[in-house]
UniProtKB/TrEMBL annotation:
Residues 5-126 form the PTS EIIA type-4 domain. It comes from Chryseolinea soli. The keyword Transferase applies. Signal peptide: none annotated. InterPro entries: Bacterial_PTS_sugar_comp, PTS_EIIA_man-typ, PTS_EIIA_man-typ_sf. The keyword Secreted does not apply. This is PTS fructose transporter subunit IIA. GO terms for molecular function: transferase activity.
Amino acid sequence: MEHTTRKFLIATHGRFATGIKSSLDIIIGATDNVFLIEAYVEENKGIEGDLEKILKDLQPHDELIVFTDLLGGSITNQVLRHTQGHPVHVVSGFNLALLIEVLMADAETPAAEVIEAAIVNAREQIAYVTKLMANANEEEAS
């Protein structure tokens, strides 16, 4: 039985995909099977052509996890429209913590399980730190 190869696509408005990939490279090192699509950078170019090429190159044993920047945004909508019938998982509103967890997950763990756990953990990474520090300082003072 052939193992599933997990591939990743970061598709965003503008240069966000390149920026977050740069952060990934610094934190976890270079990673294989990560593709980037930056929409509307050149002459208002969309994502259809780049996305179709990535989908065309998927092998029967591949699965693709797509990270998009905004739920309900044009990138997410186009990804959903063009990936029907493909082995694709779409995650919108990602952050760096989520990307790191998904990319570093055990490839034997089902993608849906990895993604659901990463979303829960990524939400915990969003915090109003100034307020947390103020509360901690108030507790120390009392």
